[in-house]
Specification:
Number of strands of chain B: 20
Largest sheet of chain B: 6 strands, mixed
Order of helices and strands of chain B: EEEHEEEHHHEHEHEEHHEEEEEEEEEE
Largest sheet of chain A: none
Number of domains of chain B: 2
CATH topology of the largest domain in chain B: Rossmann fold
Number of helices of chain A: 15
Organism (chain B): Micromonospora orduensis
Helix content of chain B: 10-25%
CATH superfamily of the largest domain in chain B: P-loop containing nucleotide triphosphate hydrolases
Distance between the termini of chain A: 55 Å
Radius of gyration of chain B: 24 Å
Pfam family, one (chain B): TOBE_2
CATH class of the largest domain in chain B: Alpha Beta
Oligomer: heterodimer
CATH architecture of the largest domain in chain B: 3-Layer(aba) Sandwich
CATH topology of the largest domain in chain A: MetI-like fold
Low-confidence stretches of chain A: 1-16, 299-303
InterPro entries (chain B): AAA+_ATPase, ABC_transporter-like_ATP-bd, ABC_transporter-like_CS, ABC_transpr_MalK-like, ABC_transpr_MalK/UgpC-like, Mo/tungstate-bd_C_term_dom, NA-bd_OB-fold, P-loop_NTPase
Shape of chain A: globular
Distance between the termini of chain B: 38 Å
CATH class of the largest domain in chain A: Mainly Alpha
Strand content of chain B: 25-35%
Strand content of chain A: under 5%
Mean pLDDT of chain A: 84
Protein name (chain B): ATP-binding cassette domain-containing protein
Number of helices of chain B: 8
Strand order of the largest sheet of chain B: 6-7-8-3-9-10
Largest interface: A-B, 19 and 26 residues
Low-confidence stretches of chain B: none
Number of strands of chain A: 0
Mean pLDDT of chain B: 90
CATH superfamily of the largest domain in chain A: MetI-like
Structural class of chain A: mainly alpha
Radius of gyration of chain A: 27 Å
GO molecular function, one term (chain B): ATP hydrolysis activity
Chain lengths: ~300, ~350
């Protein structure tokens, strides 16, 4: 009898130690997983796919009922319309894309140039009421753009920044600097201050030490931070809609939104310009993906 | 090489923290001087002020005959070794060593000569073409030491250089640093929180607490006559037993009947505490001559010695160091008596040594 008791105990404990996944049956579980993920992927990707399809369909196929999934003629006319105006000159959309590049690019550079040294300073020096200052900096991000856009509109009108690319650049940089400071401070904290101390003993000034030794080690962090800032500026809609009006200043998001409405909507053109609009950020994120992953996971492990 | 004089050093940060309250140090030419204290006692801030990495709020620092208050770190002609080594990650060992010399603008043959010399001294030959990433912690610290050596500075500053190494390596590096210092006759200021390191390395030790110097003395002085209750509790492992005593009939009487020989010149009207090292007490069979009844609370077998923690009617947790041949079980009834010489005696209110 004693033996059977032992067996009962051992089988019982063995069952307890089996991971739950095994109990469900490894194969059945993975099939279920794949099925669910497939459904999710279809739901997520269908609009993107439909957008790409629409952008290369002829107009009569775009409006065809029932909708055509595979059986349609491919055309690049919509893409041509994105860049070329009917009279053969540059289209308003292409100007707005260029504006987006300038505004997003310059505001990101500005935010990085201001934010990285600030983050370094907050990380390295004993600053009076440091925590309060950092919280104050972060608090500027608490307000949704749509709440602050009216006061900013009024202020911009006073100083003549309405319908001006510089105005957008400044407001985007202002929104990105707090983000850059907070994210970069984490990266700077990870780089031992001793590098700079050692360099200073070797004859460099503090700023030279930062530039020559700390900055190169921060590159992955800067890349990750800049991509996020760039994506924010590139996608930003509310400020762009309220603060700009003329075709020569408008960025792409309000310009594309402007295509919808009126008596008819050229969905092919909307889809094509959306694809063009989505591509740069995707390509950029792909190019710096190594830094992005390093940047996002850095700091997860304590040295 | 040169001595270092620190006078009335005070460092207050913008956020109001006082890191160094008042520190006077006089470090001799060719001396290995250790600053010891718990974290936050101001030892590292003092060292960084000597290096010029922190600007003191008030006070003077002299290296040799030069007042260095307003000199940037590079012009103070000192070298520093850091806890995290701070080797430039993108440079090979050879270039890490040559870096400070090139920054000084020395001619190439001289740079090569000095690098080879330092590499030989620290036995870095096979490591010269590796990057810091490819070196172990101990190797990195040897490179860091060599990088300090190539400068031929007037003084070396060491900021907890061994803290990140494992125990065995730490003992080796300790010997190496001591040997090196003796050979070069270098002035060295060494910061640590490890009392074993401080005792084994230092010619003199400064014990810091809350931004003030509690005591400066040779390792033996610091161990035998701690200048304050803080030092008494900080130095020694296990630490000194602090026993409240009263003076009567020319003796010191602890509670529970423990009797100690008083040092001369005791003040009469103050509350006193006697500092008794664990090796100045003895656990005996119960009822032995001159002993008071006590009970063993716990026993730590350390191989070469045994630490008994005993309670007696007047006090709990008295620590006694005994040779491994004397064995009592936990909870045994034993005797406790004082066998050492006169204890140090402290005033409870000022926490300072009175006799």
């Amino acid at each position: 009898m004693a033996v059977s008791v032992d067996e009962a105990v051992s089988t019982g404990s063995a069952r307890d130690h089996t991971p739950p996944a095994r109990r469900l049956g490894g194969r059945g579980r993975s099939v279920l997983e794949v099925a669910l993920l497939t459904v999710l992927a279809v739901v997520m990707l269908f609009p993107v796919l439909w957008m790409i399809e629409t952008s290369i369909k002829e107009n009569r196929d775009v409006y065809a009922i029932p909708a055509k999934f595979f059986d349609f003629t491919i055309t690049l006319d919509h893409y041509k319309d994105v860049f070329v105006a009917p009279d053969g000159g540059r289209s308003a959309l292409s100007v707005s894309f260029l504006n987006s590049v300038v505004v997003a690019g310059v505001s990101t550079v500005l935010a990085t140039v201001l934010g990285v040294p600030a983050a370094w300073a907050y990380s390295r020096f004993a600053v009076k009421a440091k925590k309060d200052q950092l919280f104050f900096i972060l608090s500027t991000r608490f307000m949704p753009p749509v709440v602050v856009v009216i006061p900013i509109f009024l202020m911009y009108r006073q100083v003549g920044l309405i319908d001006n690319k510089l105005g957008l650049i400044l407001i985007y940089a202002a929104f990105n600097v707090p983000f850059t400071i907070w994210m970069m401070k984490g990266f700077v904290d990870e780089v031992p201050a001793e590098y700079e101390d050692a360099a200073m003993l070797d004859g460099y000034t503090r700023l030279q030490a930062f530039r020559r030794f700390t900055l190169p080690l921060l590159v992955p962090g800067i890349a990750a931070t800049a991509v996020f800032a760039l994506i924010f500026s590139w996608n930003e809609f509310v400020f762009a809609t309220f603060l700009t009006s003329s075709d020569s200043v408008r960025t792409a998001p309000p310009a594309i939104a402007g295509l919808i409405g009126g008596t008819t909507t050229d969905w092919g053109l909307v889809a094509a310009s959306s694809v063009v609009f989505a591509l740069p950020v995707l390509v950029f994120a792909y190019l710096v993906r190594k830094h992005l992953i390093a940047g996002v996971t850095l700091g997860a492990v304590r040295r | 090489m040169a001595g270092i004089e620190v006078t009335a050093l005070h460092k207050r940060y913008p956020d109001g923290t006082v890191a160094v309250d008042h520190v006077d140090l006089s470090i001799g030419h060719g001396e290995l001087f250790v600053m010891l204290g718990p974290s936050g006692c101001g030892k590292t801030t003092t060292l960084r002020a000597i290096a010029g990495l922190e600007r003191q709020t008030t006070g003077d620092i002299r290296i040799g005959d030069t007042l260095v208050n307003d000199l940037p770190p590079a012009e103070r002609d000192i070298a520093m070794v850091f806890q995290f080594y701070a080797l430039y990650p993108h440079l090979k060992t050879r270039d890490n060593l040559a870096f400070p010399l090139r920054a000084e603008g020395l001619p190439k043959p001289e740079v090569r000569k000095r690098v080879d010399e330092a590499a030989r001294l620290m036995r870095l030959g096979p490591l010269l073409d590796r990057r810091p990433r490819q070196l172990s912690g101990g190797e990195q610290q040897r490179v860091a030491l060599a990088r300090a050596l190539v400068r031929r500075p007037r003084a070396f500053l060491m900021d907890e250089p061994l803290t990140n190494l494992d125990a065995e390596l730490r003992a080796d590096m300790r010997t190496e640093i001591k040997h090196l210092q003796g050979e070069l006759g270098a002035t060295m200021v060494y910061v640590t929180h490890d009392q074993v390191e401080a005792m084994s390395l230092g010619h003199r030790i400064a014990i810091l607490n809350k931004g003030r110097v509690e005591q400066i003395g040779t390792p033996l002085e610091v161990y035998d006559r701690p200048a304050s209750l803080f030092c008494a509790a900080f130095i020694g492992s296990p630490p000194m037993n602090l026993i409240e005593v009263e003076v009567a009939d020319g003796k010191l009487h602890g509670q529970g009947g423990l009797v100690l020989t008083p040092p001369p010149g005791l003040p009469r009207d103050r509350r006193l505490v006697a500092g008794v090292r664990p090796e100045a007490l003895e656990v005996t069979a119960p009822g032995a001559e001159g002993s008071i009844p006590a009970r063993v609370v716990s026993v730590e077998w350390l191989g070469d010695e045994i630490i008994y923690v005993v309670d007696h009617s007047g006090q709990r947790d008295v620590r006694v160091r005994m040779p491994p041949t004397v064995r009592f079980a936990a909870d045994a009834k034993v005797g406790l008596r004082h066998t050492g010489g006169t204890p140090t005696v402290y005033d409870v209110s000022t926490e300072e040594l009175v006799a």
